[in-house]
Design goal:
164 residues, mainly alpha, flat
C-alpha cells in the first residue's frame, strides 16, 4: 500500500476549490446539453438566432464526424469552435491555477497586440456577415432555434406521453 502525505503548508486548497468550481460548471453545461435546454438567451427568449446560433450543434456534429451537417449548422465551425474551446480551456486553467505574484517586468499579453485585435475584429465582421447572409437564405438559412416556452411545452407533452 502506498502512503501519500501532503504538507498542509504547501498544499493549495484554493486551487482545489477553484477546480471544483470549474468541474461543477462543466457538469452544469453537460446537464444543459443532455436535457437539450435552449441555453442561448437571444434564441430562448426572442426566438431569433444569434450570430453564433448553431455552433454548439455544429461542434457536436463535427465531433461525431458529420462534416456536412456541421457546416450546414454553422459554416464557421472550423474557425470559431477551436478558438472558443481554447479560450475556455485557457480561462479555466488560469482560474484554477490562481493569481500569480506580479514581477517588476511588464508583460504584454498576446491578446493585447494590434495583430490579435485586428484578427478578432475580422472574425467578428465575418461572423456578423454570415449571420446576415443566413437571414437572406444563404448557408442553409437561419439556424433553427427553440424558445424556452416551446421547449417547456415539448417537455410537458413528452412527460404526458410517458405517464400512464
Amino acid at each position: 500500500m502506498v502512503r501519500v502525505t501532503v504538507n498542509p503548508r504547501t498544499f493549495d486548497t484554493g486551487a482545489l476549490r477553484r477546480g471544483c468550481v470549474v468541474l461543477g460548471l462543466g457538469g452544469l453545461f453537460a446537464l444543459i446539453v443532455a436535457l437539450r435546454l435552449p441555453f442561448c438567451p437571444m434564441a430562448g427568449v426572442l426566438g431569433v438566432p444569434c450570430p453564433g446560433c448553431g455552433l454548439t450543434r455544429a461542434t457536436f456534429a463535427l465531433v461525431h464526424g458529420d462534416v456536412h451537417g456541421a457546416l450546414h449548422l454553422h459554416p464557421l465551425v472550423f474557425v470559431i469552435a477551436p478558438l472558443f474551446l481554447g479560450a475556455v480551456a485557457s480561462a479555466a486553467f488560469s482560474y484554477v491555477r490562481g493569481p500569480r505574484p506580479r514581477s517588476n517586468a511588464v508583460a504584454k499579453p498576446w491578446l493585447a497586440t494590434p495583430l490579435a485585435t485586428a484578427l478578432a475584429m475580422g472574425l467578428l465582421a465575418l461572423t456578423l456577415g454570415v449571420w446576415v447572409a443566413r437571414f437572406c437564405g444563404y448557408f442553409g438559412g437561419p439556424a433553427p432555434v427553440q424558445t424556452i416556452g416551446a421547449w417547456a411545452a415539448q417537455a410537458r407533452a413528452n412527460a404526458s406521453v410517458l405517464t400512464p
